[in-house]
Amino acid sequence: MDWLTENKLPIGRSAKHAVDWLTENADWVFDGISAFLIAMIDGILWVLQAPHPLLMVAIIVALAYLVHRTIVFAVFVALSLLLIINQGYWEETTETLALVVSSSVVCMAVGVPVGVMAAHNPRFYAFLRPVLDLMQTLPTFVYLIPALILFGLGMVPGLVATVIFAIPAPVRLTQLGVSSTPSALLEAGEAFGATKSQLLWKVELPYALPQIKAGLTQTIMLSLSMVVIAALVAADGLGGPVLRAVNTANISLGFESGLCIVLIAIVLDRFFRSSEGGKR
Fold first, then answer.
1. What letter does residue 201 receive in the DSSP assignment?
2. How many alpha carbons fall within 13 Å on the CB side of residue 209?
3. By C-alpha distance, which of 228, 225, 248, 247 is closest to 236?
4. What pTM was computed for the model?
5. Is residue 204 within 8 Å of residue 196, measured between CB atoms?
């Protein structure tokens, strides 16, 4: 076995060289990406933090009632957000929401077109499938290291790691929805003279809409599960108090911040569940 270990393939060394080359030759690209992502996060934070917290709670509760049309859910949202304010975690909660919303926007903007392309090109999806598996099974700390080197500390590397972890969900579900469009619907569209783009926008995407919405819900939940990991690279949000609680064995801090994450997860899940519950 010595001969096998002595002739080690330079996988790690090659990855290091690739990151070093990107750092030296493409820093302007990553600076541009970082500036765009920071601007998006700051814009979302301004929307969430500029109004008074109670006014923001009232707006969110009103939206919850409009989406679900049930007073029970609206009351639950109000009580959850008021409890978060009472515990003193409103700012951290808005920072977490900014990270979740930003990552969801990026994931859906990239994942849906890639999923459509994969549905129309089986060879491309056969190549893409192991890549998606790798993105979800590779420990997040592994690609958090190059994200930290390329983007520095802060929200951006946390957002990049979150996107890498969550983007397979919209890609897979969009591909599933579009590829499962009944051939009878496509043939009917072709019989009426529809072009390929018209078939996509008026037949395939409407049929795949429940799956796409399910991909959005999964993206939000996966992004929320990354808040503690993102805190390791100094990303703001509820992950910071959780990380401090773990490092100091602070039970009260850990329970309070963990409860806030649970409440936000339940609210977001119920908020979007009604959208994915409809039948085709």
1. I
2. 11
3. 228
4. 0.85
5. no
Domain ranges of the chain: 24-276
State how far the Cα of 213 lies from the Cα of 274, in Å rounded to an integer.
10
With beta carbons less than 8 A apart as the criterion, state whether 233 and 157 touch.
yes
pLDDT, tens only, 17-60: 887 887 788 778 888 888 898 999 999 999 998 889 999 999 99
3-state secondary structure of 192: coil
CATH 1.10.10.10 at 24-276, yes or no = no
Q: How many CB atoms are located within 10 Å of the residue 184 CB?
A: 8
Q: What is residue 193's DSSP assignment? A: T
pLDDT digits (tens, 9 = 90+) for 97-143: 999 999 999 999 999 999 999 999 989 999 999 999 888 888 777 77
How far is Cα 215 from Cα 169, in angstroms, rounded to an integer? 6
Burial of 225 (0-12, 13-18, 19+ CB in 10 A): middle
Query: Residue 100 carries which side chain, given as an amino acid letter?
Result: V
Task: Report the run of H or E that residue 234 belongs to, with start and end.
Answer: none
